[in-house]
Amino acid sequence: MMKNALRVFGLAACISLLSACSNSNDSLRPEQPPNIIFFILDDVGIDQMQSFGYGGESPPQLPNITAIANAGVSFRNMWAMPECSPSRALVFEGRYPLRTNVTDAILSVDLANSQVSPYESTTPKILRAAGYSSALFGKFHLTGSNINQTGIQNNPLNFTAVHQLGWDFFKGWQDGAPFPIDTTAGGVAAPGVSYSCGFVPGGESPNGADAGACYFVDNTCTEIASRAEAPTPGRTCLERGGIFVPDTLCASEPPPALDFTEQNGYYVGQLVVNQPDGSYQVYPPQDPSGAARAYRSIIESNWAIDWISSQSADAPWMATVSYSSAHSPFQQAPASLLPAASLPASGLDCTDVNDQRVISNQMIESMDTEIGRVLVEAGIATITDGVLEFTPEHANTMIVLLGDNGTYAPVVKGPFDPERAKGTVYQTGVWAPLIVAGSLVNEPGREVTAMVNIADVFQLFGEIAGIDVHDVVPASRPTWCRPASYPSAMPPPPACNCSPSRACATPRAGSGGANPTAPTPTASAPGRRKPVAAR
């Protein structure tokens, strides 16, 4: 305990966690380690973030993420891997792809040795030693997904992968992204007709309709007509989990062409559940419960809220809310989650690049709405007059919000270069947002410009739980480095012994403040490249 009290590791050095600052602050740390809510934003780079000084000419409006930043610490020099699986493996293992062989986004063709091994010391396994229970909701993408016969053969962990990697509970998708949009809209498209966004548009569009029957997987049906608050019945039906048959009334039997087995972007997808006892359930799109049919950001949040609400106050927990958004395909989010003045999007073309930029903005905005709802319904915050405010002492909870890599090329914001976006090691592909807030953060509302790496988040989780990850990870599976240690009351050492990311550096003088000017990316900084104006 004395050793941990005198050592500051990785991100904790920049955040100034009260638990590890000095002996004089030991009394300020609660007897029970804090709960952790870890939000992962998929394919949301720093170029999208107005709170970091970016967002282009039309930034997504993210009031809740901005409120978290104002109540915490923003890391504006955080570097990830250029694709989903390598970044996520690094977050939960602290080991670079060259050690784990997770070198690319995992696909069904990837063999087991290119997926995360059950022998790794993952975050939930390490936190279990401190009494934590852990759950993950939404996108997984650390192993294969059983998406086809090849995937089944290459994924020996099968549908229990998340459990075997250490999580007590999982509800979500093993796939790396939502399925492509079903352009037949559930089998209702006439020959030669394609619905690019997966639903029947309104009557102002070709092959659209302003009224019809909405059939559900449990054999019920509701007739829907256009109205002011829901002008596009086909979209409304999809949001409710149904299939819309235009210009008809409900019949005793659904039309034979309806296909409830087809996955459809963000609204229909095969759901996998891992239980604490190792059992699992799979809910296909046609499951009568309708569990696999709803907008992903909403149900990912619902699952997290339900699990958090079920946890005992006598033991710490970690909930990872791994949103699927804003990964492609780009598909309209429910209008109910968007700012009041949002552009109507029902008539947009989900294959058009300009329309995709509008849709992507709204997908990120809807995710921001759901992040706020998770924090409110978990008892960590309130929203008053549209402003998210944390409850006193944040209910002994730490909030970590992370983008897993840079933004996908079609929706990159200027001045960043869409030709060097996600999938490349240029800055637009690997520069991602990281915000940490909560009960242990000292001096909230500041920004840190010291360079950190996504690997350091692995160590941060250990620090929050009062664990030195270097002491518990077996020597046979070395983590990325051992940062220099020093008493926090003393000046930092002249150099770290662990770079390239210099995670143990402390904030530079003058880096704090609620609204500092965003630094201009330069070509001289290590691992960075001056952005080219987006075309």
Question: What oligomeric state do the depicted chains represent?
Answer: single chain
Name the helicity range: 10-25%
Average per-residue pLDDT, rounded, comes to: 86
Mind telling me the C-alpha Rg? 23 Å
Structure class: alpha/beta
Q: DSSP helix count? A: 14
Overall body shape: globular
Report on this structure.
The chain is α/β, with parallel strands linked by helices and 535 residues long. It is 21% helix and 15% strand. It has helices at residues 2-5, 10-15, 63-70, 84-93, 97-100, 123-128, 149-154, 161-164, 233-239, 296-310, 353-377, 427-430, 455-465, 469-472, and strands at residues 35-41, 72-75, 78-79, 133-139, 169-173, 211-215, 221-225, 243-246, 271-274, 280-283, 317-322, 381-384, 387-390, 397-403, 434-438, 446-448, 452-453. The chain has a 10-stranded mixed beta sheet with strand order 10-9-5-4-11-1-14-15-2-16. β12 and β13 (387-390) form a beta hairpin. The termini are far apart. The model is unreliable at 1-9, 17-28 and 481-535 (pLDDT under 50).
How would you sum up this structure in a few lines?
With 535 residues, the protein is α/β, with parallel strands linked by helices. The protein contains 14 helices and 17 strands. The strands form 4 sheets. A 10-stranded mixed beta sheet has the order 10-9-5-4-11-1-14-15-2-16.
